[in-house]
Amino acid sequence: MQTYKNLFASTLVLACTASTGCVFPTAATEDETDTDGETADAGTGDGDEAPGSNADDGPVSGDAATETDGGETDGGETDGGESTDGGESTDGGETDGDESTGGDESTGGDACAEGWGDCDDDPETCETDLTTLTSCGECDKACDYAGGTNECVAGMCQATVTIDEIEDSTIMEAEPDTNFHDGLSLSLDAWPSPDQLFYIRWALPEIPVAAAVTSANMVFDCFNTGGNVRVKRVETDWVTEDVTYNDQPLVNDDILYQVPDQFGEVLVPFGAALTEWRNGEPNHGLRIGTDNAAGIAFHSSEAAPLDGAAPYVEIQFEY
Question: pTM, whole model, 2 decimals?
Answer without folding.
Answer: 0.61
